[in-house]
Design goal:
Structural class: alpha+beta
Length: 267
């Protein structure tokens, strides 16, 4: 039975954080109030009151049809702010600066957020084309853009199918029919990186390289350039070099995350 004498102060904060963790764990499919009550051990009235507050403050969203709860934009924004520091941006910034200097093109770092990729960092090369439409904090549907396509291709087929069905109208509007969508996934998996030409912006070609920042976090580094500057021969040369550089940093990040998790479990 719930202790009503501690429903304020730190007890309420802990319960709210418990709900946020549950919403995060079940964000993909959503979680209903009855499931939240069962998994959290909270009384229904308390869980409903805390959820209502989270919805009001835009930390949670309630689907009007299924009545399932998910994280909303404010909670995701907090995650985005944290990821702009350690480990991803801080680890990848110097590499992105080197890539921008060597290639003279624009370099982007993205992280997966549900069906979308979120831009965490951007380095501008000497070319400074000014034709790219995504900046830091910008969101783009996975598969529309090189970085998002690279991340998408690294997901299980069943998850890719779900993402496509939820967003098929947006993909169709971008010129990605089901066959073109499947073909892009297959090609990315075959060569080990994504290639997008004239999809989000005419006259622009992008190359994307996905990696695991941790067991549950997938991210990508991508390069964007004016299409005439990326013929097939240069694409292959850049891809081989960039992929190795990214993997070296990604391995360091993954080891750091594992070490910190191991230290936390021992403390």
């Amino acid at each position: 039975m719930e202790d009503h004498s501690q429903t304020t102060g730190t007890q309420s904060v802990r319960r709210t954080l418990q709900l946020l963790r549950l919403l995060g764990e079940r964000h993909k499919d959503g979680i209903k109030l009855s499931e939240i009550v069962l998994e959290s051990g909270l009384e229904r009235s308390t869980a409903h009151r805390l959820l209502a507050c989270l919805v009001e403050e835009r930390f949670a969203d309630k689907d009007p049809v299924t009545k399932a709860y998910r994280l909303d934009v404010e909670a995701m924004q907090l995650g985005l702010w944290s990821m702009t520091r350690v480990p991803l941006v801080s680890h990848f910034r110097s590499l992105m600066q080197r890539l921008a200097r060597i290639t003279q093109e624009e370099i982007f770092l993205q992280i997966r957020e549900g069906d979308y990729g979120v831009c965490l960092h951007r380095e501008v090369g000497a070319q400074r084309t000014g034709i790219f439409t995504i900046g830091i904090g910008g969101r783009r549907l996975l598969g529309i853009g090189a970085g998002g396509l690279a991340m998408l291709a690294n997901l299980p087929d069943s998850e890719i199918d779900d993402i496509y069905m939820r967003n098929r109208q947006a993909y169709a509007a971008a010129g990605l029919t089901n066959s073109a969508f499947v073909s892009a996934i297959q090609r990315t998996r075959h060569v080990g990186y994504s290639q997008v030409r004239d999809l989000t912006t005419q006259g622009v070609t992008g190359l994307g390289f996905a990696f695991r920042a941790s067991r549950s976090v997938i991210a990508s580094v991508s390069l964007g350039a004016a299409t005439p500057r990326l013929p097939e021969t240069r694409q292959r040369q850049l891809a081989d070099d960039i992929r190795l550089r990214i993997q070296e940093v990604a391995d360091l990040v993954a080891r750091r995350v594992e070490d910190e998790a191991s230290d936390a479990s021992r403390s």
